[in-house]
Write a structure and sequence with these properties.
Distance between the termini: 34 Å
CATH architecture: 3-Layer(aba) Sandwich
CATH topology: Rossmann fold
Radius of gyration: 19 Å
CATH class: Alpha Beta
Strand order of the largest sheet: 1-2-4-3-7-8-9-10
Number of helices: 9
Order of helices and strands: HEEEHEHEEHEHEHHEHEH
Shape: globular
């Protein structure tokens, strides 16, 4: 065996030994988080990364994810069995040191109120929408303070991210554009740019703060209009001065508009939002 092969074998062996000794991350659940601002109750699931219980002096960045039902539990997903496996994706990225450890807060949507809460403007065609501002207040004034108090977080904007897909991606982009002093990173997957005459493009045009660290993606099988809209959003974001370091755009040629497709891209998004130190 050559010296190069021996060195490679030793690196692989060290990685496998490290994997076997690190306990996986774990979940804590808050089954009845109540918002006075929105007037409803939902479940919140918190992923704590490997080592959280052992490294008691370490603090972590936080990712607030929408549609929490679809992230961690196969039986709670919109299509039972088709969930993001986000705990496993985070464990692998952290364990293989392709991402820094992070806390992930999965926020369940509020059922019939989902469309209203995830959209910044009303849409006459869909007879609803426009409560994203109140949803933002819930996150900033009610949920985030609770998470920062109960867990060892890094609470500043640089270490606070939002993320989601479809309408969850739309509201995450809205949050990053509207509250840059709170949310400095965003994972925006297959966003519903079409909502209310593509008004989210105007938010991109008028954004003048420091660019958040932004992951944006779309699937090649989501339809021509969805591709056109997200590519337009990409172009407008790039014109505002995002660099390759702060902006990543990805097209998944095989991706459709489904939890299964977003699950395939979840680890990449985590790795971009939280690169290894």
């Amino acid at each position: 065996m050559s010296e190069t092969l021996r060195a490679t074998f030793r690196r692989v062996l060290r990685l496998e030994n490290r994997r076997s000794t690190i306990r996986p991350g774990r979940l804590e659940r808050f089954p009845a988080f109540t918002s006075a601002i929105l007037g409803n109750t939902r479940e919140v699931t918190v992923y704590l990364p490997p080592g959280y219980d052992d490294k008691t002096d370490q603090r972590y960045p936080v990712l607030y994810m929408q549609d929490g039902q679809n992230l961690f539990d196969a039986h709670r997903a919109f299509v039972p069995g088709n969930h993001w496996s986000l705990q496993e994706a985070a464990d692998k990225a952290i364990g293989e040191r392709t991402a820094s450890p992070m806390i992930i807060v999965g926020i369940d949507h509020a059922g019939p109120a989902r469309i209203d809460e995830y959209t910044p403007e009303k849409d006459a065609k869909h007879s609803g929408g426009g409560r994203a501002g109140e949803y933002a207040r819930m996150l900033i004034e009610e949920l985030k303070p609770m998470i920062d108090e109960r867990f060892r977080t890094l609470p500043d904007a640089q270490n606070t991210a939002v993320g989601g897909s479809s309408l969850g991606g739309l509201v995450s982009l809205y949050l990053a554009f509207t509250f840059p002093t709170v949310f400095g990173r965003a994972a925006v997957m297959s966003p519903s740019v079409w909502w209310s005459g593509r008004t989210i493009l105007g938010y991109a045009d008028t954004y003048d703060d420091a660019p958040p660290r932004l992951w944006l993606d779309i699937g090649g099988r989501e339809g021509l209009e969805a591709l056109r809209d997200v590519r337009e959003l990409r172009d407008r974001v790039q014109k505002k001065g995002w660099s390759d370091e702060t902006f990543r755009y990805y097209e998944d040629r095989r991706g459709d508009h489904s939890e299964r497709a977003w699950a395939r891209r979840a680890r990449q998004a985590l790795e971009f939002l939280f690169p290894p130190a």
